[in-house]
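Hey all, quick one. A colleague (J.T.) asked me to put the magnesium ion job into the tracker so the inputs and the structure tokens live in one place instead of scattered across chat threads. No bug as far as I know, just bookkeeping. Sequence used:
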Amino acid sequence: MPIKNIALLGFMGCGKTTVGRLLARKLGFRFLDTDSLIEEKSGLSIPQIFERFGEKHFRKLETQVLEEVASWKKLVLSTGGGLPMKDENWKLLQEKFLTVFIEVPFETLWRRIAADPGRPLLRRYPRKDLLEKLYLERLSRYRQADVIISAGESTPEEIAEAIIDHAQADC
Ligand SMILES: Nc1ncnc2c1ncn2[C@@H]1O[C@H](COP(=O)(O)OP(=O)(O)O)[C@@H](O)[C@H]1O
Ligand SMILES: O=C(O)C1=C[C@@H](OP(=O)(O)O)[C@@H](O)[C@H](O)C1
Ligand SMILES: [Mg+2]
């Protein structure tokens, strides 16, 4: 049985984009990242979209790009951290992908996120405790994924290999 399309989920900074690219290369799959697709389509960066049109508009674009690519084959899709929260997105992810949550302790996420100016949600949640609240709110959805990888201090390479093991066991 061929390996299903894989969607990577998790909070900002958990490594969805980094691991997704590597995983796709290892599997010989196409790599797509919803944020990059949105940037390509709109000709604007994610922070520019948030600034000019607001988060609501960004969330509509997320659903659009997910719908566009969900039926493609041999795909690794790295999602934006908020994408699985919308029920219609979650339903589509569950139908079309093996969903994989990359679980990383919040302390590690905070270290990575705080060093990166390209994440507009930091403006809305400018303090560690505020962002942690958002993380905790999202956890229950992420934990419904088909596969949970407790990434700890693992390297992207190790995480990609662990996902391949799970994906092969699944088919
Ligand atoms: N397993 C890892 N170990 C160490 N650093 C990582 C790991 N995965 C990602 N990173 C780093 O963390 C940051 C966020 O990674 P990214 O792939 O953009 O996460 P996401 O797409 O989930 O927001 C990047 O600087 C990346 O190099
Ligand atoms: O968590 C979120 O709501 C967001 C996560 C970002 O993607 P990453 O999770 O890849 O950083 C990006 O989609 C946008 O800044 C909003
Ligand atoms: Mg990303």
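Adding what we noticed when we looked at it: The CA atoms of residues 12 and 130 lie 14 Å apart. The chain has one domain: 6-170.
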